[in-house]
Amino acid sequence: MFKLITPNTDNQLKKYYHFRWQMLREPWRMPAGSERDEFDAMSHHRMIVDGRGRPMAIGRLYVTPDHEGQIRYMAVKSNRRSKGMGSLLLVALESLARQDGVKRLVCNAREEAIDFYERNGFERRGDLSDERGPTRHLQMVKPLDPMANVLRKPEWCTDLQERWAHHIPISDKMGIKINQYTGYQFECSAQLNPNLNPHNTLFAGSAFTLATLTGWGMAWLLLKERSLHGDIVLADSRIRYRHPVEQNPVAQTSLDGISGDLDRLASGRKARIVIHVTIYSGKNGRRRVYRYVHVIAELQVGARFKIRCLSWLCLASLS
């Protein structure tokens, strides 16, 4: 199981900085403490951990006064490389940069990491440095398209919307639409009027359908991001309706709300991921229907993607 987190507790921060030193400084016999700098307190930090809370990958974003996003201290555990962990971190850090109004990302990539950054949209600037040291660096830049704040992959979102319309016609009748996909966050909404109950608020079944499709869609997009293929299978569902929704419902999920182990899927085995979805009453409303919806998706490689109510496994609950 993996989970993307923001290290906040003393224990998490201790593991975060120790991993940074272990991966980026210890191999060059640099002392503990050399992994930190004066910008850490002003930066965004993200870490991917396993089921026991042990770091598997880390990265940092610092936004300069000139609104430039500097990516530093990217590291992935050696036995987790080439499995999408680094790309997942970059997507999360890029989304944070967009929220802060950053127009481009900059990094000084180690020579052996240049191909990785190029695969993730970075461009070379200049030549490899001539500095003395254990490794040479190359400055790389990624301009951020403002339109990608709305749809990172418009063609994927169109494909997903069409799959819903074809395989689950009721989604079109409910007015369920994809609002946003940034690679980090996925948001869908529905029309209130076609989904009213006798009290003129949102029908609970419609709310659950919206939440389920949002979790399903995020699972599908996550597979696309990592070039994986397989069935998404759900079974069992429970729901507790907390408060009435009086405006158009909006469902949101993000990488921070996902845990699981896609490495198993990449190796041809079944995998499981857990996706948390939150429903809002209106675009700027407070949390209404669910505090959390837990969508547990079982993924199987080698089969065609199916959208059938009976082929789902979904567990919804409230904390």
UniProtKB/TrEMBL annotation:
Molecular function, one GO term: N-acetyltransferase activity
Keyword Transferase: yes
Pfam family, one: YiiD_C
Keywords, sorted A to Z: Acyltransferase, Transferase
Range of residues in the leader sequence: none
Residue ranges occupied by any N-acetyltransferase domain in the UniProt entry: 1-145
Family annotation (SUPFAM superfamilies): Acyl-CoA N-acyltransferases (Nat), Thioesterase/thiol ester dehydrase-isomerase
InterPro entries linked to this entry: Acyl_CoA_acyltransferase, GNAT_dom, GNPNAT1-like, HotDog_dom_sf, YiiD_C
Protein name per Swiss-Prot or TrEMBL: N-acetyltransferase domain-containing protein
